[in-house]
Design a protein that fits this description.
single chain; alpha/beta; Rossmann fold; 7-stranded mixed beta sheet; 9 strands; 23% strand; globular
Length: 258
């Protein structure tokens, strides 16, 4: 691929334009995003997100970023972990998704320890060594320059800070492929029925196929400077949870529970 271009699903687009294409996708689906997640995952995304939150080892007083946090599923869980002494920043590049997350969490009475920030993963508006942990659920595949985003995340993490990434990945059980392909093939049709627009869910299918496999993405995390990088496959590789630690000795250590 031309070095000035990247993929948007199966299409090749100028790198400078991908963010705008992705923005239009999420502007289209923001209001029905949670409903579609429940339908497409048969509700399992909620359990997976709880697993991700536990891996952060969040505790009272921690400062945590839910990057590409959208409608705030992880933010809600994390806010209960960090308590009134801590803070969760829901950061998203898409204003429509950020507004949907703010409205949802406000309606649920989650106010005091959550902040909403419009921000780009490739140029985060936060100081160095600011967060105890960062979560990124189902968003890294939409980022134009993943290596740059990973470097930015590491910059904002304290020494010992955890990065937890949830993302669709590659099946490890070939026998599941026919069933998975048939099920995911329904997403654009269901999306059109629920939201009136099938294209965002066609893009979803294509973006999953274009995302690096588990080991390739783990290598990207290592290249960005993360240590103790590992991943766990869920549902036969439909989803993977990646994790890594910032062991930059220039940062102050984070106290951890035993």
């Amino acid at each position: 691929m031309d070095q000035d271009k990247t993929h948007f699903g199966f299409k090749s687009v100028p790198k400078s334009e991908k963010a705008d294409h992705v923005a239009k996708v999420f502007q289209s689906v923001a209001k029905q995003y949670d409903l579609m997640n429940d339908l497409m995952s048969l509700g399992t995304h909620r359990l997976i997100k709880r697993m991700a939150v536990e891996l952060t080892r969040a505790r009272p007083g921690h400062q945590i970023m839910d990057l590409a946090g959208g409608t705030g599923d992880l933010t809600e869980l994390l806010s209960k972990k960090v308590g009134p002494q801590g803070q969760v920043i829901l950061c998203d590049i898409n204003e429509a998704m950020l507004d949907a997350g703010r409205d949802r969490l406000y309606d649920e009475g989650i106010l005091g320890n959550v902040q909403f920030v419009l921000g780009d993963a490739e140029s985060l508006p936060f100081p160095d060594q600011y967060f105890d942990a960062v979560t990124l659920a189902f968003g890294i595949r939409n980022v134009t320059d993943k290596a740059r985003a990973l470097a930015e995340i590491r910059r904002t993490l304290k020494h010992g800070g955890k990065l937890i990434i949830l993302e669709f990945s590659k099946l490890t059980l070939p026998a599941l492929q026919p069933a998975y392909k048939a099920f995911s093939g329904l997403w654009p049709k269901v999306g059109e029925w629920i939201t009136g627009d099938s294209q965002p869910y066609q893009y979803l299918i294509e973006s999953i196929e274009m995302h690096p496999d588990q080991e390739s993405f783990a290598d990207m995390m290592r290249t960005a400077g993360f240590s103790d990088v590992s991943y766990e496959n869920l549902a036969g590789g439909v989803v993977a949870i990646h994790q890594g630690t910032n062991t930059d000795t220039a940062a102050s250590p984070i106290p951890r529970d035993n």
